[in-house]
Amino acid sequence: MGLKKSGGTSEMGHSKTLAPALRDLWHVIAASQEVPMGGRRVTTLFDTGLTVSRNERLRVARNDDGTLLPVIERYGCIWTSFGSPSADLFPILEYGESDRRNIIAGSIGVNVSAPRAIENFLDMGHFPYVHTDILGAEPHTEVKEYDVEISFERDEILATRCRFFQPKAALTATEGQDVDYIYRVPHPYCSVLYKSCPTDESRLDVIAIFCQPMTEETIRAHLMLSMIDADNTDAGIRRFQQTIFGQDRPILENQYPKRLPLDPRAETPIRADKSAIAYRRWLSQKGVNYGVIPQQLS
Amino acid sequence: MVTLYDFELSANCYSVRLMLSILGVHYETVSVDIYPGSDNRSEWFGKLNPEGTLPVLVDGGYIISDANPCLIHLAGKYDDTDRWHPIQDWMVYPLMLGWFDFARRLTASAGVARTGVAFGWNADLPALQAEAHRLLRRLDEHLWFGEKQGRDWLVAGEHPTIADIAVFPDVVLSEEGGVSRQDYPAVRRWLDRVRRIPGFVVMSGVFPAAPERSTVPLDLRRS
Amino acid sequence: MGLGVAELRQAAWYPVASSDDLPFRHVYHGQLLGQELAIWRADDGYVNIWENRCLHRGVRLSIGINDGAELKCQYHGWRYANRTAGCTYIPAHPADAPARRITNRTYPVKERFGLVWAALSADAPEMDVAEAGFALRPMPVNALPEMVLSALVARGEAVTQLPPLGAALVLAGAPGRATYFVQPVDSARAVIRGVLDAEPDVDTLMAFNAVLARLRDAVEAEARAIELPDPIVPRYEPVSVELATMPDRVIGRQATVRVMVRRRWQAALDVTGIELAPLSGHLPTFQPGAHIDLHLPNGLVRQYSITNGPGDLTGYTIAVKREAGSRGGSAAIAETLREGDVLAVSEPRNNFPLRRDAVRTTFIAGGIGLTPLLSMARALQRQGLAFDFHAFARSAEHLPLGPELEALGDRVSRHFGLGPPETAEAIRQVLGAHSFARHVYICGPGPMLELARGIASELGWPDEAVHYEYFKNTHEIDTSSSFTVELARSALSLTVPAGRSILEVMRENGIEAPSSCEQGACGTCLTRVLEGEIDHQDVYLNGTEKAAGNVMMTCVSRAKSARLVLDI
Prior knowledge:
Number of domains of chain B: 2
Structural class of chain B: alpha+beta
CATH topology of the largest domain in chain B: Glutathione S-transferase Yfyf (Class Pi), Chain A, domain 2
Number of domains of chain C: 5
Oligomer: heterotrimer
Order of helices and strands of chain B: EHEHEEHHHHH
CATH architecture of the largest domain in chain B: Up-down Bundle
Number of strands of chain B: 4
CATH architecture of the largest domain in chain C: 3-layer Sandwich
């Protein structure tokens, strides 16, 4: 598949082939609610124009030659692939639990590469500075030790024992406390976060980000929530998640270079960035070549 | 009781939230899910504002729609000093109306570019961005000469007016629509000044400015 | 056509802002030849021109906060010092000093003719002496820089070219002669920066602005008709290998900096204040709590804490107490050091890092022990974080750096002439019961330190909330043991006999190991221990750290077991 050079900053030549690790994957192209029965939506994936339509069945076609592409609907979103994808998408078991509310909080366009958005999603150190008084507050800035592993069996990154001090962890809380998080990266452009649920200690709320790489440096981020929450309205939950993501957006759009550099010497990691380091290494190992600046072999 | 029908990511709602906060008015918020919910097209919202636009302010039975009328209402009712809305000053007041018009054109260019990028709504981005740059060039020139003439705000006087609050949101959020402010240094300085107004609040996409004065100066060298 | 990008890149000075563009606490977003710049003026007047990118995650520093002494990144709150752009604090790891030398890229800077000038290369030639001037309103133009210069020259009379991209001329329609410098922002973007000799009135400024705006419109129309070059691809220099890895704790390194005694004064009874200035430029970045090794003319090396506030790098101020039983260090300073003397100091080393994630920080200073705490308190004050400062001294005359302390205002309490019981009572009052996210920092004479630590412990303060620094280790060091040391990474096995320290034996065998006080007080020789039981004899580690048994001070501590395995 030929891909356009994206702007003047491409260092990968005039055309390139999508790495097999990306070609044979499912990629999100729309929220299901954006394509109702009888509806049609034009969108972009990997610089390629696509049309999604829903009549008797859901169809995805390339705009250049009309070729039909495979399609599935999972987690409130529509997914397609340019290659031979596996039968199903990565699992999010909680999504199927009958007492959960599954909500798409929005699909938001951002001028950034997909891997930069994923790395930000994995990051806790910015909570007091970017999500001030919501997910964190100065002076409580410490990122405590946590564990990261790359699971070869499931081909995903798992960060566990993550904790961060939150000033008002729940509506009922008067004093701050540590909130527990688990992060999964089951797809180069998707991440799933599990967070202790304020109303039921034994359960976890799920927040996922599915990035649709429209070009190397522009995405649509589809935000999915699967919550145990009887108190808030859908509008309230969406507002909360849009507020959080809206706070991340100016950071993402002010990151340079926009594509994620995979060379370990491009930026300065600290211990708190263990999950980001694992993520960059994992992308390198998979040969991911879209939305990244690959490590130069010398 | 003051109630604001509000959408967090809306620049126009933000200007009303700003004014409420600066004037210290206590209010309640009703979230209207414009995106993706399209609640503003719903029957219940149509009864409040048939145009389907936000913000809507309900204050003691009065219903006021759209940002600029809301600002005029708030300043008129809650600012006893009349500095935010100097209606009695025939030199200043017409200039203020001119800036309201400017704010509307900015919303129609920079603002539409921003929501176009964010929500995937149809928008002719290059044309919108070009118009936004044209407006920002004008704004920068106005503010640069203002600084030379001892005027910190959009219209004359020691004090900001609701014109500053009307124009501020679409300027401070312009980069989300792909409109860089790098070429407008006087605009960037004015953004700092607005962000230092007592009672200023941020929204998603807006960072606070550095505090104006620290409690102590940097330790000056002993000669 | 005119100059190509390659020639423009030559080490030349270009204007990048007007001086007026840098008001109090502002960060200006600039660009030169495709390279984005964050430009800001500190409260001491110094103009910083840095690459517009935080080294951590690439976020533009032009959206950060200028606090007057440091620039704070908006993303993770990393702080970079005025002048050096060295990182002084990483909030995600409040207990650690960012010991690795994380330093942003800086560019040479000059202020001339009311403009701020930058050069992309350090090889830029010196500029002439300062000349006054008044900058016109800058006029950004979306066109090739050389097109803009050509248009100026074509519309000008009495032209004097000022390479690489300037000309003095009388522009048609303008109210007089002016000098115009074209700032090459990018391959197809420029800013015209005009300068007048005398201060103009507003009408004159407006007339120039109108002429330049017409010229801009004409050149932009011209530029729209041609195919414009791609933007210049900015260069992002890789960070050093050392910074790209993630060591747990990094040990400082020996390095010397030559400094001159700029000022020497009586800072209290028996205390000499010394200000050490760089021979040129500014001094290396330090963090609050850091010390330097001062190499004295008589060959002695002594450690002194830096008392400066953040971003203050034009001279380190230290205070030296004349000790009755001086081994030559403080006596040498008191008696022989003169203003104008040149000395060598080490780069600052921080073994007493300040956490800034406390709800309230308490400082307890005994006499000369206030020096590191003063630097810490200044940093917290600058950041607007809560603290209280308790200075203990025999009398007001014995209190060092009184005027500097005065600037901290009513957060300072002074306790004079107290005997041991009264001191204990005062400390008890100051500490109170421990509560969440409170931290105390103690520095002073050994007995007072022991007393304060004991009281903190009684009051339920956990070890990790009690931070202290001894001037010296007054314990008798027991060197009677002998044992074997294995250096895991060097694959070396050494025998340490009675009467010798691990550090000495390692050095004799060619192992380079940093050290400073060599009496177990400063923390510089901290080494990780992989196996074996440690015989701790230092005063640097706290009880919890000693009990954990995975780090030691090789200058005084030894082995209880027959064998130690060190991570060296």
